[in-house]
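Before drawing any conclusions, I looked closely at one protein, both as residues and as discrete backbone shape codes, quoted below without any editing:
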Amino acid sequence: MKLTAKIVGIFLLGIVFLTALFGYLTVQSEYQQFKRIKEQNAASLGNEVRETLVVAWKDQGHQGAIRLVRDFANRHQQMIIRWVTTDEGHATSKADISKKELDLATPDAMATVTKQDPEGNEQYLIYYPIDVESNRAGYVEFKVPLNDVAEYTRLTTYRTTSIIVGMLLCGAVIITLGIRMVGRRLDKLVEKTQRISQGDFSQPVEIQGDDEISELGLALNQMSDTLYQQQQELAAASSARISAMEQLRHVDRLKTVGRLASGMAHELGTPLNVVSGRAGLIASNRLSQDEVRDSALVIKSEADRMATIIRQLLDFARRRPPQQSQIDIRDVVNTAINLLQPMAHQRDVELIASDSAPLIASVDPAQLQQVITNLIVNAIHASSPGKQIHVSQFQQEATPPTETATPKHLYCCICVADQGTGIADDVMPHLFDPFFTTKEVGEGTGLGLSVSYGIIEDHNGWIDVQSQLGEGSRFTIYLPAQVD
């Protein structure tokens, strides 16, 4: 609607300006043409009477010239003609123009001036010079009323004004019809595009007619339907992808549980032997009442220990939906270390965890535990017997590797450093690729680091790797810290 008014308004302004300019130029042209014709008539009459005037001037002077011009004027009444002079002694025939301008007049370039009479009517005065023996005797004054010109100017102005008013009225009608036929229909299209931009593909736009705007409305409806179908397909694909990722992460978690099984079996063997021995003593009826009570307490303690180990393993293996919350990262790290201690003992590798101040971040505890477990398991496999694995936690300002120009932010960091074989330079670029592994067949699927990197990336963080062959590797997890 606004566009229609602007287009019509600009068009009308241009037409009005051109019409007014044409009317003005027409009046000016007609006015100049009128004066040229009158000057030509005056020159023709002046030439006609000049010879006779020279003779009358020589015979009778000014009075003879005045009488001759008066007789000449009576025969040519289309103009008012009189004899004028610059001589101060003849006030009755004094010219209405300055002496300087009169002196410059010639028969070919007469002196002219526009004056108003006492009644306010404009008159055009033309002065034709009469020279007698190289002396300026006087001038024949031709006085032409400009009433016809003024009337013509008024008529032209009236007609031009009428045309402009008519154009403005037509413009108002065009704007009204444009609003009805174009503006409102465009408003419907704009409203539809706004709904599409907000993700609302319902309610197709309805535009009557068979012109380009209605065709645009049909095309917009078709585009909306296509976008809706693509949105549904994308949502289904995204849901399937998320489900596949969760399944992949769960498979990786179960794979890690399998690795922990042998260590757990060894860890559970000792308390089971204690429980079995104590139970046998109680069953023999050779113990006193106090000894039976002590044995029962030992059995309960060992049973609680085994229940804790099994619960940790089951919690790790259980599939949970992703759910982020603000937690202390140290608790997740300690849980992962306790879960992996049996595997480390079985391989004669020492797990060392450093203490730190509370590290608060918004994470999914189960997913973060999976990442830390994967990194520690890899470190255990890469370490020789008698080596150490250091797990440290700290806060650090850093810039994401993909955003080098952004300012630094505070991150919670978890570092797993081993003294293993290290990683070769040609392997480093493929470290986080799915199904890429350097382990023997049956020891790894190549999913652990890929899944771990995806989890940390979902938490708006990243994993940094530093390694040197023969000296070990250092994996550092960066997670955005929660700043109070």
